[in-house]
Amino acid sequence: MVKKSQGKSGEISKEIVTALLSRKLSFLLAAFFLCSLTPISEAFVIPSIHHQTRKFSSKKGNSNGWNLYSSSGSQYFAPDLRVPRHVAVICDGNSRWAKNRCLPTAVGHIIGADRFVELIEYLQADGIQYCTFFGFSTENWKRSEAEIQSIFELMEQLANRFANRFPPETSEIEIRLLGDLDDTRIPEGLRAALRGLQDANEKRRLALLQSSITSTPMTVNLAINYGGRQDILRATKLLAIAVKDGKIENPDDITEEVFASFLGTAGTPDPDMIIRTSGESRLSNFLLWNCAYSEIYIARAMWPDFNRDCWEAALAWYQQRQRRFGSREPCEERVRFNIMKKKE
Q1: Which of 87, 150, 157, 237 is the most exposed place for a label (fewest CB within 10 A)?
Q2: What single DSSP character describes residue 77?
Q3: Catalytic residue positions?
């Protein structure tokens, strides 16, 4: 134990100074030792994403095999940079965002509509092939009639705005609709606007098939009046009809792939990442069949505040995930096998 010096008040003895310096030096040496063992590419991933190109080549870049691809010229990317193929978003927090600012609920939905258009541009720039937005759930009918009406009016305006922002004739974006749009509670104007978007995209797709032009557009799924359980129930009924009609005779022919073909999401791969805003950690009946191995990212930001930085943080988080799909990594399996072999 180090004793205080007997000199003036507040004076520290040489022993204390020596002890403090020794402790500080120990921390510095330990930090240096750990950094020397951990390659920078494994130590961290900088949460910033380039929006123009995402390629890696060991022939260029620095000696560690890294490449610099950035509009600002200052971002680093690991060689195993992974981009999700399908991103699904639960756009939550519009009402709370407005309430926290003493604004009408409709204002939150209006600002949220802006975020929707902006995020599509970010996703497209980052090479995302599929995205699904949860716009209105089958449970949202429990809200007040005034709020539901304002949501539908805004959706109709957004559909027309979307058509102008991403013209179906030239845009590299395809629109798909999920959910029960035959529900008569949905205004006819909204249903017509949404189906107009989908029909225009379908015409363009058929025109491209007949021509020699190759195109790989991003698919945007709009889940409106959608519920995961309802989608599964509907698929089960369609499957039962197929069995009754003799299209499926052997029960063993009913596989996961066959069942999935009856879902409203048929043809769309399962989401690699589901983003939910507002800090709430639940799925809310969203893509229940499809999310078996989705990485779920909970963003604290309310949906109207979910900007480019929030998206980049979510993508950086996803890139650090190790997706095993129920199995083990090869290196982990080898270690486990060697330990068991030694015990034998």
Answers
A1: 237
A2: E
A3: 92, 140
